[in-house]
Amino acid sequence: MTESWLLAIDSVIIVALFVAIAQFRSPSRARFGNLTAAAALLLAVAVVVFGETLRAAELVAFSLALGAAGGWYVSSRLTMLQIPAMVALQNGAGGLAAFLVSFVQLTRTG
Fold first, then answer.
1. CA–CA separation, 44 and 60 (whole Å)
2. Closest among 14, 32, 16 to 24, alpha carbons compared
């Protein structure tokens, strides 16, 4: 794909995520917001997988499936009182992921 197409797709993903986050303000629309965010993130993964040459595509697919199964399992057993703790855990995991990506990029030799 050309750079302009990738930029357009990335822009659509960003707008979809903003729309999804805006839906979280109302409990009646939060489910639609979750589905919108999930679709946008799935599109983002597809852009990365198909837009780049991956040496370990099977590992990416396995990791995606494992993460989706784990998320589904945890969310199906959560009560409303446990949601703040889950959000804190997700924020910490996101910070750890950002650190690991930054660390790998900074220590690359080639």
1. 13
2. 32
Q: Is the pLDDT of residue 36 over 90?
A: yes
- Taking each helix axis as running N to C, give the angle between helix 57-76 and helix 27-51, from 0 to 180 degrees, rounded to the nearest 10: 170
Q: How far is CA 103 from CA 7, 41, 75, 95, 108, in A?
A: 26, 23, 30, 12, 9
Q: Provide the residue type at 28 as one letter.
A: S
Q: What is the model's pLDDT at position 14?
A: 92
- Which runs of consecutive H residues, i.e. helices, occur in the chain? 3-23, 27-51, 57-76, 83-106
**Is the separation of the CB atoms in 37 and 21 below 8 Å?**
yes
Global model pTM greater than 0.70: no
Rounded to 5 degrees, φ, ψ at 109 are -110, -15
Other C-beta atoms closer than 10 Å to the C-beta of 51 total 13
